[in-house]
Specification:
There is one protein chain. Helices cover about 20% and strands about 30% of the residues. It is built from 1 helix and 9 strands. The protein is α+β, with helices and mostly antiparallel strands. It is globular. The longest helix is centred in the first third of the chain and has 31 residues.
């Protein structure tokens, strides 16, 4: 009886070990496969009461978080993944475990944004009376859209 219990405990331990290994390895690989760099995923959070639009690919090399362009990013990324957009409702965010590289500041609007981690970088992107603007969110960074306004003050 003693050997039988020891054998059962050993099998149970082996099954738990195998199961816990799969739980640790599989979600991590699945979440980052082909999506995020070694620095992590970029993400956009919409903390404003209005909707926002995120872009999957940035299309320009060597830009840092907060960099911007008035040309819509339409390229595939370096892994051949096509450009996609994602609507972020009020209080929402881009999907976790995916690398969403940019967001759009709509034409005629002013956005107040905080970038994290660290102490944070605060930026105001004022496009009132101007065309749209696209803003880079670097790998491992978060952009928090805090406010959107089409009138004064920004």
């Amino acid at each position: 009886m003693r050997n039988h219990n020891a054998l059962r405990r050993g099998r149970t331990f082996a099954a738990m070990l195998l199961g816990s290994t799969a739980l640790v390895v599989l979600p991590t690989d699945a979440a980052f496969a082909g999506s995020c760099s070694w620095a992590g995923c970029s993400a956009t959070f919409n903390d404003s009461p209005l909707g926002a639009l995120a872009y999957f690919n940035w299309c320009r090399a060597r830009d840092i978080t907060g960099a911007s362009t008035d040309r819509e990013p339409t390229c595939n990324n370096d892994k051949g993944q096509p450009q996609n957009t994602y609507y972020i409702g009020s209080g929402g965010r881009t999907p976790g475990g995916q690398d969403w590289d940019a967001f759009r500041v709509d034409a005629g609007w002013c956005y107040r944004v905080r970038f994290l981690p660290g102490a944070g970088l605060w930026r105001t992107y004022d496009r009132r009376g101007k065309s749209a603007l696209w803003v880079k969110v670097g790998d491992g960074a978060e952009a928090h859209i805090l406010a959107q306004n089409s009138t004064s003050p920004c």
